[in-house]
Each structure stands twice: as C-alpha cells, then as structure tokens.
Design brief:
The chain has 188 residues and is of the alpha+beta class. 23% of the residues lie in helices and 43% in strands. It folds into 2 domains: 34 residues; 141 residues, no CATH class. The chain has an 8-stranded antiparallel β-sheet with strand order 6-7-5-4-3-9-10-12. Strands 2-1-11-8 form a 4-stranded antiparallel β-sheet. The protein starts with a helix and ends with a strand.
Length: 188
C-alpha cells in the first residue's frame, strides 16, 4: 500500500514539475504581449489610438491628399529615422499653390519635373509628430507598404489626428493593425 502511494506521489510530482515550466512560459508570453517593446506608426484622435503599424528604422510611408486650394493631388513622403523622429523627405505635387513650399523656402531642396508631377526632394525637416485634420475634399490617405488607408473613413471627416512613433505592445500591434479592406484599397 505504501509503495502504491509512493508511486502515485511520484507520478503527481512529475506532472507538477512539467506543469510549472509550462505555466511560467504562459506567464512570460502574457507579459511580453503587454510590454510596449515594438516601434509603430500610430494614429491617435484625442489621445485614443486608432491604428498602430509596425515600422523598421529607415522605412518610408506617405500621406496622399488633395490640395485644398488648387484641388490637385499631393503626396508627402516621410521616413522613420529612429526614436520618435519622423523626417519629411519629399513632396510630389502637380502645381504650386498656397502652402506648397518653393525652393527658396527650404534651403538644400531640389525640384525636378517628372511624368508624375513636380518632385521636391531633400526637404529633410524633422518632426516628433504630424498633426492634420481629415478633410472632406482633401481625402487624406496613409500609403503604408502596399496599402492606401483612407483616414476620414478611419476617424471621420473634419477630425484632428496625430501621426507619431510610439512603442506599443504586441497586443496593440495585433488589435490596432491595418484596418479591414472596407477602409483599405490597393495602392495604384
């Protein structure tokens, strides 16, 4: 009888020894899911995050919109430089208008005329965040990797939003990933 009890205790002890590492692993995974370890491009409205998109240092993305005065398309290209720094690298537009800088406004820039329009490169202005108001006419879109995310569909029209780099958790990257295809269209 004592031998049977000893054998049962040994089997239960063995199961516990196997269970402890499993529970520790699950606990560590949960902690890692919640720690803000991953850099992401975030879009916030009144301090509430609406999207978090993973980025690697040096990765570029663009904001495409219709200029409110001359009603022509503009694409501003930005790059994540590490830390919280976003750098405006270039702007593609069709015609000059109010708010479109000219070479004299930004020392060191170059202007080239291409089949796509006028490209102003070498802008290289640094920002910790980009604030904008989603317009009815401007139709702001975030061009991220191979997607165009329509911002007014994401947060509403005439809404003040902020684009910035934040460290987020893996859970946030999963929850606030690129929106469903009702908000996303293939970039052309």
């Amino acid at each position: 009888m004592k031998a049977q009890l000893k054998e049962t205790d040994t089997v239960q002890g063995s199961k516990r020894k196997k269970l402890v590492p499993l529970l520790v692993g699950i606990l560590l995974l949960c902690v890692l899911m919640l720690l803000p370890l991953f850099p992401a491009l975030t879009i916030t409205k009144a301090g509430t995050m609406h999207i978090a998109l993973s980025l690697y240092k040096g990765e570029r993305f663009s904001i495409r919109y219709i200029h409110s005065v001359n009603r022509s398309p503009v694409i501003d290209t930005l790059e994540w430089a590490g830390g919280s720094t976003l750098i405006v690298r270039e702007s593609l537009f069709q015609t000059y208008g109010a708010g479109i800088p000219i070479d004299a406004d930004l020392a060191g820039t170059k202007t080239n005329i291409t089949q796509d329009g006028i490209v102003q490169s070498g802008i290289n202005t640094k920002h910790s965040s980009i604030s904008l108001i989603t317009g009815t006419t401007s139709d702001h879109q975030l061009l991220y990797r191979d997607k165009a995310i329509r911002l007014k569909t994401l947060v509403g029209e005439q809404t003040s939003i902020k684009l910035s780099i934040s460290r987020v958790s893996l859970l946030s990257l999963i929850h606030f990933k690129a929106p469903s295809y009702s908000l996303v269209q293939e970039e052309v």
